[in-house]
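Extended Data, panel c. Modelled sequence:
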Amino acid sequence: MKNIGIQIYSAEDKLREDFRATVKKMAEIGYTSVEGAIYDYVTLEEFASSVKDAGLTVSGLHCDLSKLENEFDETIKYFNTLDCHDFIIPWSTWDDEDYISMTNGINKFQPILKKEGIDLHFHNHQYEFLDRISRGPNKCIPFEHLRRETDVFFEIDMYWVAVAGKDPVKVITDNKQRIKYVHMKDGLTENEDGNAKVLGHGQAPVLAVRDCVLDLGLEMIVENECREPDGVTAAAECFKYIAK
């Protein structure tokens, strides 16, 4: 099977106890890459050496655009030190002001990041597929707006697409040219607040999405938010399910 990465937020409970040992455990489970963020509880040097010593790579970092506005050089250094080439915007409020600033920020920084060898992505939740978001004069479906008004890549979170009542396989297939990574996540999909579960224990079409991602040659990033009984154990269960 194609390489499988993990968003190490999935094991944040254990990361905060022992970052290096937790990253090593992800490699032992079978994951080949980690997706992370800019952390305040571990140094950049410790992050980089932990990943290298475990034989992993950093597939991407979730990071707010404000980091580029306020700490550009430091942020680029963080990415370069980790040999990471994918900057992932983790979310948006989609109120009227954020609606405009998000679009402008993407269009401003995408070419700047490209010159640094970094691709810019947007990670969805359910809100990007709901037309009631941004209630003012700019009311729209945020995902459609980003697809039309920017060239940003999409990190599709299949679970939140399902929570929004959409078919994640169709969303991924229709946008395959703008997708590098798909978040594999499961949970209850009956209400838009969601309720995350270990892969295979929820209502999202995990295996159908897995097969679609493999067919399209995209990369899977496991994310587990419930951490039951703990992040490492849940990560192992997720890997076993997705790799079968």
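The two ends are 9 Å apart (CA to CA). This feature is highlighted in the accompanying rendering.
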